[in-house]
């Protein structure tokens, strides 16, 4: 493992790389959110049925499931830099083509490919960033990637609201195409971003790795220092390694806590106005857009105290207490389904704020718990599992509200969150202050001493 990279000073290079890597999460938040606003005009223009609306909404999530699993493995095989720009180009092309869609199936296909490209960016960009960052700044800057997601969601609702106000619901084509601008901006920012020296060294390209470290960090490094620890076992595929005895528990932990967090979260974001209307809050297209944007803003705000907590009290206490407290507002709404709309709004905002802990650890944990040769695969697999939760929650919540009522629906969400708490209590590890390679083989107990690389 490389103590030179782990102990390097934090420089403008790291800041620029962190900004460049935030493009994928920001575009994810924007692309997934802007379609909800665009549907206001799209539905009457294209004559969409309820089933077709659900299909359009789910297509990007299904694409993310496929993209996360597929491109995580590919990123570990061919490198981070190769695909770092290609996925943004795909997003840009799909955004432009969305302007000319004239039916359900072309739009579903474009949204599916967009989802694949967005999910591909998570293992590419977060593993690249993690492998360049100094230990002291790794948790905070990986956590800030999810802040970019919520910034993209808030921006989508602001842009959508302005389109509705200035051009009316018929501007939905411009809404879908507007992500092209963000793609172009991040294509420029990503120019010149280097490959991961850890990946290069692990794949026999030690000379290139040493040259990159000297160029971007300004220090000389012994090539042997960049090599990963030697393994005595036979080399197998990344997916097989993740599901094998050595990493199975960590793989389950990252996938399950992400699943239990994202299922209720996506449902709240997608159907927040419908939930609030069940508590008696008046609705309307513009009000719904602004209300959902407000909830997204609270999700974003909640990430900031969590970013401080993971580097002070640690990853494990932060995620456990966050899940425990997230249960409270959901249970309140479950046992008090006749609560005034103002109480329901405050409870949903409290839930959104408390989600900050799991949010900032969504990509921090899988990047810290797995070694270079399977890191991108681990991030991609966790993302894929989480999107199953997102799709299930988004599909079932409106059905549950109609068939079971608000109270039981909120109690189910509280139960899913409680399962996430149990997973964290049993399996969450402490990785605060550890060198990136120090968590790799064999260190599985959260009570084991922590060594800084």
From TrEMBL:
Protein name: Putative MFS transporter
An annotated Gene Ontology molecular function: transmembrane transporter activity
PROSITE patterns documented for this protein: MFS (PS50850)
Subcellular location: Cell membrane
Membrane topology: Multi-pass membrane protein
Alphabetically ordered keywords of this record: Membrane, Transmembrane, Transmembrane helix, Transport
Residue intervals passing through the bilayer: 17-41, 53-75, 82-101, 107-125, 146-164, 170-189, 250-269, 289-307, 319-336, 342-365, 377-397, 409-428
UniProt domain Major facilitator superfamily (MFS) profile: residue ranges: 17-432
